[in-house]
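Suppose you are handed a protein chain with no further information: no name, no annotation, nothing but its sequence. What can you learn? This example shows the usual starting point.
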Amino acid sequence: MIIRRNNSTTLSVDSSVDKASVSIRNLDGQLFVKISNGTKDVEISKPGDYEYLGVGVTVFEVPVEKYSGVINLLKLNVDGVRVVISTQFRETPKDILNSLANIDILAIPVVNAIATKTLVNAVEPKKLVLIKAFGGEEVELDTIQKSIGLVTLPEVSSVKYKSADFAVTGDIVLTGELLA
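A reasonable first move is to predict its three-dimensional structure. Written in structure tokens, the prediction is:
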């Protein structure tokens, strides 16, 4: 599985096994999700649980005052790796946080140090991918690194993982990358 930055508002999560690609576009805090395998495209526009082209997708709407009916949080299962991608930084209801337990990767934009720390502490991912300028205003990266206790955060254009990377025993130490 590869998480790649396509442009300032789009990420892709590519499956190594099923050859499916999940494209996630962020426009003004709303996520648009498209799953493709080269011959077939499926777009997801409503909250719910889906399985297309070997990719499991759970789409959430965390209600906010200004927006209603928008997708701003999603959970993917690609090649046995569980990934959560978020655009919102308001308080996430406990029932949604509970459904995000035991994830492998949390991918969120570099926007708010307090919200990042809260979400990281709530879902305890094994890896963190911070997305530079993913449709939002950035804050100082140093502030986020200090708040979550990461000493270094290498800047990369894509990250590649396989399910064996997450078959760990014992304590999990959070590691992270900055997707530029």
